[in-house]
Target: Flp pilus assembly protein, pilin Flp
Amino acid sequence: MRGLSVSKRFKLNLKRDITMIKFIKNFRNDEDGAVTVDWVVLTAAVVGLAIAAFSAVETSTSGLTTEMTTALDGADATTTIGG
Model:
């Protein structure tokens, strides 16, 4: 821009500024990014709920497994079935 006249520099700067203003207006009106953020948040919530549900089920089945093991260890098949 050094060798350009003042009016030429002004026109180039004006053109660049207008292009930037159009870009900003289009960016502001574009809602695709907002929708993506909504889906990411929704997916994270579903994954969090799934982890919480898995944790609750896993804890309950651990206790049930321990109780079943204890009950089966104490059982005698011949006396229970036969009689």
In short: The chain has one domain: 6-80. The radius of gyration is 35 Å.
